[in-house]
């Protein structure tokens, strides 16, 4: 008897409870997604095994990077020419977001940001051992790029 009166006594609460239950059920029944959104047009890969240098880091598949980042990777692979004078310069890792290595281990490259008049916040950082990292927030966080 009490359960029948709940929707009439608290209609808004009842609808929110039903909506929450449906959301929980749908979440539990959905197929597993291997990505989580971590920035515009990118995702963090959770189902792919990462190389040892990327252990414990968020990762992103190269194909899920913004088109401008993929173009920067192509330029790196080709050895340039690069559009910005600072491209290829030593990245100091002063923020300590990447594993620590001796100075000169990392190099940075600008990822063009449409609409920006300067270099913007997006970068690719490469390591001497083939490591590739992407940041879209000017070194505050990095994702290991899986190629």
UniProtKB/TrEMBL annotation:
Transmembrane segments: none annotated. It comes from the Bacteria. Residues 33-53 are annotated as: Disordered. The keyword Electron transport does not apply. Residues 1-32 form the signal peptide. InterPro entries: N1-like (IPR000026), Ribonuclease/ribotoxin (IPR016191). Keywords: Hydrolase, Nuclease, Signal. This is Ribonuclease N. It comes from Streptomyces phaeochromogenes.
């Amino acid at each position: 008897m009490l359960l029948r009166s709940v929707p009439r006594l608290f209609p808004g609460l009842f609808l929110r409870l039903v909506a929450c239950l449906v959301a929980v059920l749908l979440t539990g029944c959905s197929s597993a997604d291997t990505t989580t959104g971590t920035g515009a047009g990118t995702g963090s890969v959770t189902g792919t095994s990462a190389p040892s240098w990327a252990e414990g880091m968020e990762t992103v598949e190269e194909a899920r990077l913004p088109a401008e980042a993929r173009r920067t990777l192509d330029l790196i692979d080709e050895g340039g020419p690069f559009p910005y004078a600072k491209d290829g310069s030593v990245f100091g890792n002063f923020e300590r977001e990447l594993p620590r290595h001796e100075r000169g281990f990392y190099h940075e490259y600008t990822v063009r940001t449409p609409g920006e008049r300067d270099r913007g916040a997006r970068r690719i950082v490469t390591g001497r051992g083939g490591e590739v990292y992407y940041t879209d927030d000017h070194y505050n966080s990095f994702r290991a790029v899986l190629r």
